[in-house]
């Protein structure tokens, strides 16, 4: 239901929507979570499982001669430590792709430790082709220092280390290489980003609930309602969302597996719903751990508020309320959801009544989040969190002393997120900006809201 979360899927795991593996208890730090994972692997191996994984067993050999060595191993590194220590196990896992190398845990109470003169623990020794153990000196015997000592030794032996490469899916970006992007704003919105975000939402986030009823079900129906009202549909997605909403409205309670099956069944019957499986474009991070879905979700709700504001009535405030319900009940990041709900209360989301104010409320709140996360570990160095829009992209959005020019900001948001200005990844055309009405916007109230 939330992350950070960890599930263990054993080697005989059978895939199923209701079979989500064995839950790990939450830990207060990454180090404790790592220890928990290591102990789980050790327990599994002691039970005869995970035979394909590197062995984390600890041995007590009497001497080198009685210690078996697999064929093909050139160097064996012995980590002498307590059975309760995780240092050796971490090093085993960190070096699991080293070829012709064996990392072996040895008990600090073994006869071998005594016979080769190991006095302090943890310690590390290397056994080469001569089968003579040599104690290495890592200085302070931390995991980092021991691993560094092992790598230093291997470099002295001209060992060829594995190359760790992170491959990114760049198919969609390659499709844009020959396009003329010179006239396109750096803030341009791509339809494929909105599609990918919706697909993740419908396939993954809304199906996490074991039982979907009451307030969460109402939140989902509200979310689908605002999509029907304000999403810039293409292909067969509108009919798909309409039928999904109607089906989900027909019952007061659903289980997650039923919702998942319904989503997939309707997607097949209305195919094509999603026109592409390509990666994000504007929301693509410099590494896979950055941006992506969260960027897509912000973009989606900006699109919905802007296009709902062009409808009669109070549709854009309805989008804000639907966003609040979605983030509260479905957005997986627990901490993010709590921050958003606190901000919504502080910035009086439910007091917003006019369409134009809803557009600017979301812009103000997004900038508040950007300010809070600037410099955070989650920030993509290639896409720093700024106060949006930048002076470069919208010089008219700032007044002489740097204060926001709210009418100009509103016009810019209309230009970027308006349905007619959303770009197709494979046939980019810069559409003329559709002017939006600026009605009776209460600039004074919004200015105070932004400064509070």
UniProtKB/TrEMBL annotation:
<keyword id="KW-0560">Oxidoreductase</keyword>
<keyword id="KW-1015">Disulfide bond</keyword>
<keyword id="KW-0285">Flavoprotein</keyword>
<dbReference type="Pfam" id="PF04777">
    <property type="entry name" value="Evr1_Alr"/>
</dbReference>
<protein>
    <recommendedName>
        <fullName>Sulfhydryl oxidase</fullName>
        <ecNumber>1.8.3.2</ecNumber>
    </recommendedName>
</protein>
<dbReference type="GO" id="GO:0005615">
    <property type="term" value="C:extracellular space"/>
</dbReference>
<comment type="similarity">
    <text>Belongs to the quiescin-sulfhydryl oxidase (QSOX) family.</text>
</comment>
<dbReference type="GO" id="GO:0003756">
    <property type="term" value="F:protein disulfide isomerase activity"/>
</dbReference>
<dbReference type="GO" id="GO:0000139">
    <property type="term" value="C:Golgi membrane"/>
</dbReference>
<comment type="function">
    <text>Catalyzes the oxidation of sulfhydryl groups in peptide and protein thiols to disulfides with the reduction of oxygen to hydrogen peroxide.</text>
</comment>
<dbReference type="GO" id="GO:0016971">
    <property type="term" value="F:flavin-dependent sulfhydryl oxidase activity"/>
</dbReference>
<dbReference type="InterPro" id="IPR017905">
    <property type="entry name" value="ERV/ALR_sulphydryl_oxidase"/>
</dbReference>
<dbReference type="InterPro" id="IPR040986">
    <property type="entry name" value="QSOX_FAD-bd_dom"/>
</dbReference>
<keyword id="KW-0732">Signal</keyword>
<dbReference type="InterPro" id="IPR041269">
    <property type="entry name" value="QSOX_Trx1"/>
</dbReference>
<dbReference type="InterPro" id="IPR042568">
    <property type="entry name" value="QSOX_FAD-bd_sf"/>
</dbReference>
<dbReference type="Pfam" id="PF18108">
    <property type="entry name" value="QSOX_Trx1"/>
</dbReference>
<dbReference type="InterPro" id="IPR036774">
    <property type="entry name" value="ERV/ALR_sulphydryl_oxid_sf"/>
</dbReference>
<feature type="domain" description="ERV/ALR sulfhydryl oxidase">
    <location>
        <begin position="286"/>
        <end position="388"/>
    </location>
</feature>
<dbReference type="GO" id="GO:0006457">
    <property type="term" value="P:protein folding"/>
</dbReference>
<keyword id="KW-0274">FAD</keyword>
<dbReference type="InterPro" id="IPR039798">
    <property type="entry name" value="Sulfhydryl_oxidase"/>
</dbReference>
<dbReference type="Pfam" id="PF18371">
    <property type="entry name" value="FAD_SOX"/>
</dbReference>
């Amino acid at each position: 239901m939330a992350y950070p979360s960890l599930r263990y899927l054993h080697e005989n795991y059978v895939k199923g929507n209701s079979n989500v593996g064995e839950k790990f208890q939450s830990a207060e730090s990454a180090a404790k979570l790592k220890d928990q994972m290591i102990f789980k692997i050790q327990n599994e191996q002691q039970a005869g499982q995970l035979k394909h994984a590197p062995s984390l067993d600890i041995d007590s050999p009497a001497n080198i001669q009685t210690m078996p060595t697999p064929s093909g191993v050139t160097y064996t590194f012995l980590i002498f430590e307590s059975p309760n220590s995780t240092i050796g196990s971490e090093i085993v896992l960190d070096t699991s792709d080293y070829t012709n190398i064996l990392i072996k845990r040895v008990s600090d109470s073994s006869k071998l430790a005594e016979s080769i003169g190991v006095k302090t623990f943890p310690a590390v020794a290397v056994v080469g082709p001569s089968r003579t153990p040599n104690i290495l000196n890592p200085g302070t015997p931390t995991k980092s220092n021991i691993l560094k000592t092992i790598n230093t030794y291997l470099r002295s032996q001209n060992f060829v280390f594995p190359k760790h490469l992170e491959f990114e899916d760049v198919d969609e970006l390659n499709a844009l290489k020959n396009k003329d992007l010179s006239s396109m704003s750096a803030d341009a919105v791509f339809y494929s980003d909105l599609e990918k975000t919706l697909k993740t939402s419908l396939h993954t986030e809304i199906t996490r609930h074991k039982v979907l009823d009451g307030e969460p079900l109402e939140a989902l129906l509200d979310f689908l309602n605002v999509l029907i009202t304000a999403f810039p549909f293409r292909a067969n997605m509108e009919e798909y969302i309409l039928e999904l909403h109607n089906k989900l409205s027909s019952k007061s309670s659903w289980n997650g597996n039923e919702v998942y099956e319904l989503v997939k069944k309707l997607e097949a019957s209305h195919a094509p719903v999603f026109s592409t499986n390509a990666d994000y474009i504007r929301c693509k991070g410099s590494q896979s751990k950055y941006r992506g879905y969260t960027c897509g979700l912000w973009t989606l709700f900006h699109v919905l508020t802007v296009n709902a504001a062009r409808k009669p009535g109070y549709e854009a405030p309805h989008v804000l309320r639907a966003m609040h319900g979605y983030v509260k009940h479905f957005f997986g990041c627990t901490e993010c959801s709590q921050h958003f709900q606190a901000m919504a209360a502080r910035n009086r989301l439910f007091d917003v009544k006019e369409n134009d104010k809803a557009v600017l409320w979301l812009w103000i709140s997004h900038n508040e989040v950007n300010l809070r996360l600037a410099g955070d570990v989650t920030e993509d160095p290639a896409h720093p969190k700024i106060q949006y829009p930048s002076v470069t992209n919208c010089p008219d959005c700032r007044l002489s002393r740097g204060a926001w020019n709210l009418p100009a900001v509103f016009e810019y948001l209309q230009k970027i997120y308006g349905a007619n200005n959303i770009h197709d990844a494979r046939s980019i055309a810069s559409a003329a900006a559709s002017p939006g009405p600026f009605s009776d916007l209460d600039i004074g109230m919004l200015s105070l809201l932004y400064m509070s």
